[in-house]
Prior knowledge:
Elements: E1 3-8, H1 15-24, E2 29-34, H2 38-46, E3 52-56, H3 64-72, E4 76-81, H4 86-94, E5 99-102, H5 107-124, E6 153-154, E7 162-167, H6 175-188, E8 193-198, H7 205-208, H8 217-227, H9 232-238, E9 240-243, E10 246-249, H10 263-276, E11 279-284, H11 305-313, E12 316-322, H12 325-341, E13 347-354, H13 356-359, H14 363-375, E14 380-384, H15 387-396, H16 400-403, H17 410-420, E15 423-424
Parallel strand pairs: 1-2, 1-3, 3-4, 4-5, 7-11, 7-12, 8-10, 8-11, 12-13, 13-14
Antiparallel strand pairs: 6-15, 9-10
Helix pairs in contact: 1-5, 6-17, 8-10, 10-11, 12-14
Amino acid sequence: xxxxxxxxxxxxxxxxxxxxxxxxxxxxxxxxxxxxxxxxxxxxxxxxxxxxxxxxxxxxxxxxxxxxxxxxxxxxxxxxxxxxxxxxxxxxxxxxxxxxxxxxxxxxxxxxxxxxxxxxxxxxxxxxxxxxxxxxxxxxxxxxxxxxxxxxxxxxxxxxxxxxxxxxxxxxxxxxxxxxxxxxxxxxxxxxxxxxxxxxxxxxxxxxxxxxxxxxxxxxxxxxxxxxxxxxxxxxxxxxxxxxxxxxxxxxxxxxxxxxxxxxxxxxxxxxxxxxxxxxxxxxxxxxxxxxxxxxxxxxxxxxxxxxxxxxxxxxxxxxxxxxxxxxxxxxxxxxxxxxxxxxxxxxxxxxxxxxxxxxxxxxxxxxxxxxxxxxxxxxxxxxxxxxxxxxxxxxxxxxxxxxxxxxxxxxxxxxxxxxxxxxxxxxxxxxxx
Length: 434
């Protein structure tokens, strides 16, 4: 049985030789169509006529989103480059094509690459991840030196950085506040940290930090990733430095700009972010709806794809809820939706603005009991209500650690940040009574 294949290498002088070589191979490849451009390729692939495609790096308008559409349609993608074209090979890797072969390779090598990609795509349901190395402009991070002013001893920090997704249900439970506080606390520990605003319904990280940013850094990084031009140094340029060890990828301020945060592009952004920083803290949107299921065009961009992709790739998801009856009910239901959307996800729970008023009695105890009973959550980080300190931080565009270092709301989040990175904090000495 022959394997139907498409080609999209128009304009290359070696196109005819490539097609002839494929059809001469002993693996039974059949070139069913030589596509003239990207729209022709996508339309043909969507019709189900082929199981694989060979395309060149100079195919006009080829980007990461197009590759993702091909893969989602069950078509394995193999890149073909002119002999010695290392730049073209690198670009194909960056837009998500793992297998790239030179155009002058023997027929069986070309056919073998196609057959292998089809087999992997069939086994895993998607194409393999590209394998290529990049350099870190901030230098290697085999260890994280402790900050002398806080006296911490990091126990981890080697290898790939942590991706911490801060999520919460509707109703403004304090996602941005928690994300911003965790990121700043990590930076004070000496941890190279990246704070990213991926809220597709309108992020406010820039405003919370007093940044007048009309050019969202995360959207710019996604555009570069989609075109195959994003590398580690480029990601560092898009991320503004606000503290010695804290950089920020600002988000979109208008909800109608959500298509700029494509899920396929964010995958590469987060992969590079984990090499750029020891900890990447992402402020996510609230909605987990699988919106492509209600769309007539399954290839259309997904508004909630940015949130779902971030949660799927996160090492830890931090679920944030408000400490009142409505907020807790939303959190309990949201945790169920979160587990259904991303089975097996590692979740840590933070409850904001804990006070006696809305709950009564032992507020922390009742909150912990409710989450243990109705959501199966044993460990909860409770953040005391301190409206004055948070209002001051917002008004000044600064972090809680800067404006109110002794705030009761800071300590649990500081301890939580240390716990997430495996950092041992010194025990606080109890003051002797006079």
